[in-house]
Amino acid sequence: MAKPRRPVACATDEAVIRGSLDTTRHRDPALVAARLTQWLAARHPGGRVETIEAPLASGASSELFFVSLSGVELEGRPAAEAVLRMAPAYAVYPHVDLAAQFRCMDLVARRSPAPVPRVYFCESDPAVLGAPFLLMERRHGRGAPDWPSYVRQGWLHDLAAAEQAVLWRNAVEVIAAVHRTGLAPQDVAELGLPFGGATLLDQSLRYWRRYLELDRQGGRYPELEESVAWLERQRPNADFAPTLVWGDASLRNMLFDGLQPCALMDFEFAHVGIHAFDIAFFALMDYVMAEGFAGGAPRLPGFPGVQETLDLYERASGRVVPHREYFVRMALTYMSLATTRVFQRLAREKRVPPDLVATNPPLRILGEVLRSGKLPP
């Protein structure tokens, strides 16, 4: 596949990547800690926040704080550390529902072997902290950083190719574990994508169309228009079994203990949907990180390509990944819709030049796929 053309101001620049990872802070951590202490004390007399830390990068779709607690016992044991995830002032997604995120994470934690942190509380009243929030278990491990990119340096880069292959296979297996989460009829009815549709595929297509309408508020993007229309026009005539999908499956959203994932994070887009989309997203994201955000750097030698990763998933899960081209294109469309929305915010906040919105890495790769008809290998 030909390398996408890059603009003079490049979305692989350090300042751009760091900006895309950091949510603009709207809240004073000390004030958040004081209000959270009041809220905790009403539920756990004597409970309080001892320390609060705002990580340098908390992602583009939420605002995070790490908190240490005292006097709080959750599920029969002291809760010394937690993560506070607050809904952002700028919505990346066309629909944000923290209660649904809570339910999805809780289902995976309770009904699957996947290493998902327990979610302790969901508070939907924005008056408490200024926005709805989740309070969840904090886990520790080594991550796959965006900057400096794990593709170019760091512990993942320094692993032997055979170790990288084991780590990748383990990551695929935990995604298969997420997909084994048991679902009751009520879960299927209530945790699908929110804009209606008679089938899971109908729901997905309506969601992409709504996402496109959201992105249109900041400009016109012919690649997004064409790709969403292609998905609608080429939809397979098939039924899909309801599956709890992560929605943002990638190495970047995992923590590792050795070569084994020990925590899965960022369930903002978790929903009952189609397993093929979820694993296609995972398979494609590493390519986008290397080819797009790392400026065309070679992928790590132990990581297989998209099709081989889908084969690995089939062996790990016992489930076929049908209509592969369709769902890989769907995954790339989603990446492009979401990243365009993030870059619109960056441009509005004058952290990137406005012309980078229409040349962000996933969108450039999507344009190349549309022009060539060839998917990433």
How does this structure look, described?
The model is unreliable at 2-9 (pLDDT under 50). This protein is 43% helix and 14% strand. Helix 7 (200-216) packs antiparallel against helix 8 (222-233) and helix 9 (275-293) packs across helix 11. A five-stranded antiparallel sheet has the order 1-2-5-7-6, with helices on both faces. It has a three-stranded antiparallel sheet with strand order 8-10-11, with helices on one face. By secondary structure, the chain is α+β, with helices and mostly antiparallel strands. The chain has two domains: 27-137, Phosphorylase Kinase, domain 1; 142-372, Aminoglycoside phosphotransferase (APH), C-terminal lobe (Aminoglycoside 3'-phosphotransferase, Chain: A, domain 2). The protein has helices spanning 14-21, 29-43, 98-111, 155-158, 161-179, 185-190, 200-216, 222-233, 275-293, 306-317, 324-348, 361-372; strands at residues 48-53, 63-70, 73-74, 77-78, 81-86, 119-123, 133-137, 142-143, 243-245, 254-257, 260-264, 271-273.
Q: Indicate the proportion of strand residues.
A: 5-15%
> What composes the largest sheet?
5 strands, antiparallel
Give the N-to-C terminal Cα separation.
8 Å
Number of strands: 12
Query: How do the SSEs run, as a string of H and E?
Result: HHEEEEEHEEEHHHHHEEEEHHHH
CATH architecture of the largest domain: Alpha-Beta Complex
CATH class of the largest domain: Alpha Beta
The largest beta-sheet arranges its strands as 1-2-5-7-6
The percent range for helix content is: 40-55%
Structural class computed from helices and strand pairing: alpha+beta
